[in-house]
Design goal:
The protein is mainly beta. The chain has helices at about 1-15, 55-60, 365-375, and strands spanning about 15, 45-50, 65, 70, 85, 90-95, 110, 115-120, 135, 140, 160, 165-170, 185-190, 210-215, 230-240, 255, 260, 280, 280-285, 300-305, 305-310, 325, 330-335, 355-360, 380-385.
Length: about 400
């Protein structure tokens, strides 16, 4: 009997919802049908809403100490959560396919941990979260097929340090202007949003050392919304087929980890990196079919780990690397660039790491690699030069392998 009593108590204090008849922290099930009075103490524990009637248990409460999950296919509104000001744990709204907006918790100001809004088929906007100004963990908005904008998130100014902003797989999303108040976030991922045209809603972000991932956005043409950034951490910009420029990165001076720009079919230049001076790990420019030059890297002086330039079919020269003097650790790979005819842009490079790999560049003479070896102050331990254009230099440089 004592064990049974403890189990019942745990249900009341730790979790409730899903039409299981759970009681609120006042000790009874809320059956009021009149105007909601916000006069109840904090609901203690986690709570899950699976049906419209579950919300009655939270009606009148201004806060919940634990997690709040709303997974309610039949719910059409969240009006009974009108008193809610704070969720102490995470809040998730998912698989609630009858919701078209989040109207209801209009006074909600704080989510202590993560906020997840995902897989809600009819959700058009996020109106109803207009008072929310603090998210203590990650903010994730994903898989909402009808969502066209993020209106309703305008009060959010920061996501706590270490938290990620993730916006992905929202097929109808055309803009993220609803995030225009956001000034600080540690990292963000914008991925697989087929209708997203721009990311101007991120223009207020000015925090340093961002990790950014922008991938597979079929309609994205520019990154102008990133104009406030001055330093990056880990950077991936890939598979955005109509992205023509990255001018939005024109304020970035350094990348403290990797920078990868790859598989952007319409990218013709990387002039937006014209102020970039240092990459502290790996720089990769690969498979950008329309890229003709690297002039945007004209300020780049050093890369700590390695550089890889590969499979850029229209790239004719590396003149944009004319300020590069050293690659500290692993070295340089230049591979499978069908139109690259010379390495003149590497004339200032005197120090390299362990490896030099230059191969499968159809119109690049092998002797260009030999010239590069001649100018280095020390020879890399590994040299792999093959399947470029047969030597056309006379005489062949002495450093040729």
């Amino acid at each position: 009997m004592r064990y049974l009593m403890l189990m019942v108590l745990a249900t009341v204090l730790v979790g409730g919802g899903c039409s299981n008849g759970s009681s609120d922290s006042d000790g009874g099930t809320d059956t009021d049908t009149g105007p909601i009075e916000c006069n109840k103490a904090q609901y203690t524990g986690d709570f899950t809403i699976c049906a419209q009637e579950d919300m009655a248990i939270l009606s009148g409460h201004t806060s919940i100490s634990g997690n709040l999950d709303i997974a309610c296919p039949s719910c059409t509104d969240l009006s009974e959560l009108a008193c809610l000001v704070m969720v102490g744990g995470s809040m998730s709204i998912y698989s609630s396919n009858s919701l078209t907006s989040l109207n209801g918790p209009g006074d909600l100001a704080t989510v202590g941990e993560d906020l997840n809004i995902s897989d809600n088929d009819s959700l058009i906007n996020l109106v109803g979260l207009d008072s929310l100004d603090s998210v203590g963990g990650d903010l994730s908005i994903s898989g909402n097929g009808a969502l066209t904008g993020l209106n309703g998130l305008g009060a959010i100014t920061s996501i706590e340090e270490g938290g990620w902003l993730t916006i992905e797989n929202n097929d109808s999303l055309t803009n993220i202007d609803g995030l225009s108040g956001l000034t600080s976030v540690s990292a963000f991922k914008i991925s697989n949003n087929d209708s997203l045209i721009n990311i101007d809603g991120l223009s207020g972000i000015t925090s340093d050392d961002q990790s950014i991932t922008i991938t597979n956005n079929a309609a994205l043409t520019n990154l102008d919304g990133l104009s406030g950034l001055t330093s990056l951490f880990d950077t991936i910009i890939s598979e955005n087929p109509v992205l023509t420029n990255i001018d939005g990165l024109s304020g970035v001076i350094k990348a403290d980890y990797d920078m990868k720009i790859e598989n952007n079919d319409s990218l013709t230049n990387i002039d937006g990196l014209s102020t970039l001076e240092n990459v502290f790990q790996f720089l990769q420019i690969s498979s950008n079919d329309s890229l003709t030059n690297l002039d945007g890297l004209s300020a780049l002086e050093s890369v700590y780990s390695a550089i890889r330039i590969s499979s850029n079919d229209s790239l004719t020269n590396l003149d944009g690397l004319s300020a590069l003097t050293q690659i500290h650790e692993y070295g340089l790979t230049i591979e499978n660039n069908a139109s690259l005819s010379n390495l003149d842009g590497l004339s200032a490079l005197t120090s390299m790491g362990d490896a030099l790999n230059i191969f499968d560049n159809d119109v690049l003479p092998d002797c260009e690699a030999c010239d590069l070896l001649d100018q280095l102050t020390s020879v890399p331990a590994s040299i792999d030069v093959h399947d470029n254009l047969d030597d056309t230099c006379t005489p062949v440089p002495t450093g040729c392998p």
